[in-house]
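Q: Structure tokens for this one, please.
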Amino acid sequence: MTTNRIAFQGEPGAYSHEACRKARPGMEALPCRTFEDVIEAVRSLEADLAMLPVENSTYGRVADIHHLLPESGLHIIDEAFVRVHISLLAVPGTPLSEVREAMSHTVLLGQCRGFMRKHGIRGITGADTAGSAREIAARGDPALAALASPLAGEIYGLERLADQIEDRQNNTTRFLLMSREPNRARRGQRMLTSFVFRVRNIPAALYKAMGGFATNGVNMTKLESYMVDGVFTATQFYADIEGHPEDPNVSRALEELAYFTSMMNVLGVYPADPLRQAQLQQQG
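A: Here is the predicted structure, written as tokens:
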């Protein structure tokens, strides 16, 4: 059974909602209160896909997500990079000169300091970005604006007084799309494989486990560690590598990894977002 719905965390107009529109424009976006609710919506057949943010280029990884992925029972089937463009939103007919305060999530407030200082606008912390836009629309006070996505302005009937006011123009959030069923079909030139593992309790286990990727020429784009069950003695690693498990060099590297690990679980095999390649070319 399919629902043609994609679940996301937050209010309508959140950046996760924008990611849903970008990655799956033909699907109905289903807002959920928490990340756990997003995962449960897919597991309970309320939605076909989950859209989960995993990291931001400015603020790093999203808390708790790496703990949720292995236990979710879902599989990564795609990734989506979304540029965080911030707009100043106000009730229709408000001139910029009348705005005295702007409400948003504390993270977004910190990304617009230059614009806010230039125009003498004081920041007010809201629960989240889209929720702040909804509250500003409900209050109807021209002196109070919101910092949120252009999509939030569209949904809540607010006017965009200024666009792309973020201090860093390259601020990007990476999202993972997850499904009940895995999809390892090759869908492009560049494929990624994500997995979690725990190393065996032997000297230099992590060093030895990583050696297989170096000797087989497999590029590891991410390696992060985090504690399991709140104890210091149980460390789990999350990794992203370039390539498909069926590629001979990737297969050999994963086989060598398995020898030095007590647990290894592939979370997904999926195509790289085109923006990933564009950013690599800019760096090169």
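A few notes: Residues 23 and 80 are 6 Å apart (CA to CA). The two ends are 45 Å apart (CA to CA).
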